[in-house]
Amino acid sequence: MKIINPGPLTTIQDAGRHGYMAMGFPVSGAADPIAYRIANMLLGNDPGAAVLEITLGGLSAIFEEHTVIAFTGADMAPTVNGKAVPLYTSREVHPGDKLSTSFAATGCRAYLAIGGGIDAPIVMGSRSVNHKCGIGSKLAADDHVTVLPGAPFRARRATVPEYDHTVRVIRGPQADCFTKDGMKTFLNSEYAVTPFSDRMGCRFLGKTVSTVGSADIISDGIPLGGIQIASDGQPIIMLADRQTTGGYAKIATVITADLPKVAQLRPGDKVRFRAVSLGEALNLWKEQLKLGVIDESIQ
Amino acid sequence: MLNFLRRLIERGPSWPRLLDCGDRALTVEFGNAVDPELNQRVRALDHALKGIPGIVETIPTFRSLFIEYDPFTISRDQLSKLITARLNQPEANARGNEKIIDIPVCYGGEFGPDLADVAANAGLSEAEVIERHSRNNYPIYMLGFMPGFAYLGGLDPQLNTPRLKTPRQEIPAGSVGIAGMQTGIYPLKSPGGWRLIGRTPVKVYDPSSPNPFLYAAGDVIRFRPIDAAEYRRMEALP
Which of A169, A217, A263, A267 sits in a 20 to 30 Å window from B16, CA-based? Predict the structure, then answer.
């Protein structure tokens, strides 16, 4: 595939660079884990296959081989040769076919999986790009994206996951650093996503969350979905490219099942946080893992 | 009765304690201090948990061990029991070979825009801050925050300065900063809230090298003041 226009930010991502957090290496990988997972399932790819993560749209490209593709995540109204490609379905493409995407109607990140998965250098067990850490860079015009051998085409479709704006959380490791009122404010008011959000963190602006003393702690490990409150009293949800450790108190952690929602937030979106128990979180996660694909060629 | 309650409150949390970090991670916290003995216990527990099915990844930090686990392989309760059992075992000592790493730093000016703030906060002159910062040996407690970022012990307590209220969007690679009782070097360009007092021309992290790290946990860093001319000269070296 030859890139004509990469849009503002299109990167190669897979399941992430695991096992190096102790060295200070961010995990990276697809920001929306469920859209990523389904994209590969639609094509019968390896679950860890690399895909393109397209941010807010604008990608256009020409296919140079006969292969299969699937779009998931944000709706960027993708077309092939001007014909709409429904999201969450598999389809074949041929050499010379032209792919276009528009600005996302909803959501922030779309995933384009290609049959066999994208080939790229493996650095410490992963093909995920992390430009800030000196591993790869975002796609540019005239780049060629190559793929590994894939499974033959099968017509598959999947149910579109739900992306609402209620983000469920578990009480965080430093919840004690916040006043009762601070915790109430956090759980009962609306927070708007700011334009300073990226793959490291989704930043919010809303009512200030008050702390008991200082919000600085002795730096410790940051989980995926950890919600830091910086000294200005505003929340930041830590995402795939987050630093491994940090010194801001963490008021809560987004449950695994709601990480996709956070990955699909874009500037201006408003969210509310809601506390759930560990048991509820695990049940919701289990339910989400049941999302699968339907093979239409069998029916 | 009141005295008893006061004592109970003042004693605060009892360590070690387990803190949930969502539905697939937890932190084992050994105390609330930057302390070599606490750090040693963190590394000992990390060592004792190696190879346990369901433990995905760990991050040893100053005074706590972050553990990511797969809750469908090992439940939170099973993991908690296992950690308690390991904590009750005699501790292994995990010390390696210590190296002393010389880090040249050009303090102040364009390289250390917050030097004046750190000096004002400490009630010292800028020259005194430089002298105190480059006098001590700094043991590396952990790597974290970004590839190759070393968290160091040994900062002069008088140089303790709070982080910036709002983190900077971009800090140049090689910047040397202070945050509370911590000091360190930014190996890469990054956003961050540390007070910047200088910059080193040395590349402390290089992903293109087969051995991308200049140092490891357990090593000792020493900062050596250099002037801008020497900075430029060293920066030009391959």
Answer: A169
